[in-house]
Amino acid sequence: MTFRLIGVNHDSAPLELWERLAIPQARLPEAVRMLVCQPGVDEGMVISTRNRLELLTSTSQESNLRAFMGEYFGLSADSLKSHIYEFEHQDVVRHVFRVASNLDSMVIDGPQILREVKDEIAVLGFATHNFIVRKFGTVLRVCARH
Fold this sequence. Notes:
The structure is a single chain. By secondary structure, the chain is an alpha+beta fold. The protein has a single domain, classed as Beta Polymerase, domain 2. Helix content is 49%, strand content 20%. It contains seven helices and four strands. Strand 2 and strand 3 form a beta hairpin. Helix 2 packs across helix 6 and helix 6 runs antiparallel to helix 7. The relative contact order is 0.20.
């Protein structure tokens, strides 16, 4: 199993692009279902906040998350290419903790980003019961208590 994350945020893309990539909370379960139907993706989670979109996956074989992101939003690969960042293995975990703890935010706004990520995990918990959601959800609940 390999953890992979690709994303676009306030640092990697202009405002017009990451606003276009936002997924409303009501559409998150659908987006996750489509993500986990991609070849090579065993489990998935989508984090979509006011200034970031991230696809977090567990894969057992090669998958093309860039192509999925382009197709899902109707954007060309070229328009996304220079704005996407990617992490694998332990770097995924490190990145998610940086996001949840507000170290990778546009504005330091206390517990707001942690609340947003937890809310997204709560929505996804109803849509899919998988390892990623359970583990990251548990970790974020513990972080919120401290």
